[in-house]
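User: Sequence in, structure out. Go.
Assistant: Echoing your sequence, followed by the structure tokens.
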Amino acid sequence: MSRIGKIPVNVPKDVKINITNGNVNLQGPVGKLDLSVPAGIKVEMKENQLIITRGSDEKQDKSNHGTIRARLDNMIIGVTKGHKKELELQGIGFRALLQGKKLVLNLGLSHPVELEVPEGVKLAVGNNNVITIEGPDSCLVGQVAASIKALKPVEPYKGKGFRYVGEYVKKKQGKSVTK
């Protein structure tokens, strides 16, 4: 039995859950999320708890058991509190602006980079260099943050580029003159 999969998921009172034909629909104060459950996994609601069981001991069913439980737990957190990632842009002349549904980035290139904000994600820009990404879906929030960070990864010599707030980047020494 999966150690993570056999732990029941507690459901707050403000979350509505609908389980039909291998689909789990969650609705809370922050948003709505859907999850398609694989064939060998069964999800049941008992006394404000979700109980996840598997039908067989096949390798794929064992793998899916803990994964589905963790995804459902993240989804409940997402529809009640939401998920949040913060990116920091460091470098002279680098800026981020939010223009309607577009994020415009000046990253030292010959042109500004424009990104469309996907549906279900809220972006906010503070001090022209801190981007806050919020939404109920943890996978989508993480993917948007990773795609923004991939535009200008942190350079190891001067530390310029995108980093998560609080992330430590080890700098390299670079060339030095010896005598």
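User: And one key feature?
Assistant: The mean pLDDT is 91.
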